Amino acid sequence: MTTQMLQCGRYHFSLGDNAKPLVMGILNVTPDSFSDGGHFQSLDLALSRAEQMIAEGVDIIDIGGESTRPGSQPLPLEEELRRVMPVIYALRDCGKPLSIDTYKPEVMREAIAAGADMINDINGFRANTALSVVKESDCALCIMHMQEDPLTMQMQPKYESVTDEVISFLHERINAAESEGIARERLCIDPGFGFGKSLEHNLALLKDTQRIADELGLPVLAGLSRKSMIGVITGRPVEQRLAGTLAANLAAIAHGAKILRVHDVAATVDAVKVWRAIHDFN
C-alpha cells in the first residue's frame, strides 16, 4: 500500500487517493538552467519570484543553485552554497516548505541547519555521506533515478526495460534509506524524466507511474516541466512549452503522480483544480 502521508520537515501533507496533488514550484538561482537560467539570480529577484509563487498557490518551493541540464558541468561546492544559502535563510519563515535541489551532502547539511524541509537529490542519495547527513533530521527526501550523470546522461540512454530498471534502482535506494532508520513517511520518489531517458523511455515511465507508486509504496513526484520530451512532441522551443507541460502534468496525476515539479505555478494550480473538479464529481 502506498504511503498516504509525507512528512516534510515542519509540514505534513496528506497524499491519499482523494488528496490534492501538490505543486512544487521551481526557483532556480542559476545563470545557466535550461529554462529560466539567470532570471532569478539576485536575492531580490529570487524572493520576488518566491512571493509570486506563494500568491499563485504553490505547495513547496524547490530551490536550486546548480544546473543539471543535459551536458552541464559540476558546480564547485562553495559557489552552490553562495547561491542557495541566502535564499533559504530569507524564505525559511515564508509559510511554505522549502526544498533544496542538491546532490552534495555538504549543501544538504547546511540547508537543513538553515531550515530546509526537503532534500531533492537527482543522485538518489548515493554520495557517501548523503544518508548519514539527512537521517537525524525530519526533512523529506525525494529519491530520483538518473542514468549516468548530467554531463553524459543524454548521449545514448539504453535500457532493457526502463520501468523495471527504474523500480529496481529506487527500491535499492529506499532500502538504503530505511537501513539508516529513515521513516518511509519521509520519502517520495522521482522516476527522473529526462535524466538519461529517450522520449520513448519517458513516455513508458509516464504511463507506468501508478505501477511505480504501487510497487514501491511511495508517492511519485513528476518533473516534466518544459523538458525536451515536450519539445520533441510539440516542436516548440523551451519558452513555448506551457501547453504541452500542462498536458503532461495532467497525464502524470491521472496515472498516479502526487507531486508536480513545475516552472509555471499559476497555470498548473488552475489545471489541477479543473482536473480535480472533474475527477471528484459524482
UniProtKB/TrEMBL annotation:
Q: Which InterPro entries match?
A: DHP_synth-like (IPR045031), DHP_synth_dom (IPR006390), Dihydropteroate_synth-like_sf (IPR011005), Pterin-binding_dom (IPR000489)
The record's GO molecular-function terms, alphabetically, read: dihydropteroate synthase activity; metal ion binding
Q: Which GO terms describe its cellular component?
A: cytosol
Magnesium among keywords: yes
What cofactor does this one take?
Mg(2+)
Q: Please state every residue range assigned to the domain named Pterin-binding.
A: 21-273
Pfam families to which the protein is assigned, alphabetical: Pterin_bind
Q: What is its EC number?
A: 2.5.1.15
Gene3D superfamilies associated with the record: Dihydropteroate synthase-like
Q: Which reaction does it catalyse?
A: (7,8-dihydropterin-6-yl)methyl diphosphate + 4-aminobenzoate = 7,8-dihydropteroate + diphosphate
Give the GO terms filed under biological process for this record.
folic acid biosynthetic process; tetrahydrofolate biosynthetic process
The record's keywords, sorted A to Z, are:
Folate biosynthesis, Magnesium, Metal-binding, Transferase
Q: Family assignment?
A: Belongs to the DHPS family.
Sum up the protein's function in the record's words: Catalyzes the condensation of para-aminobenzoate (pABA) with 6-hydroxymethyl-7,8-dihydropterin diphosphate (DHPt-PP) to form 7,8-dihydropteroate (H2Pte), the immediate precursor of folate derivatives.
What this protein is called in its record is Dihydropteroate synthase
Tell me which species this is from: Noviherbaspirillum autotrophicum
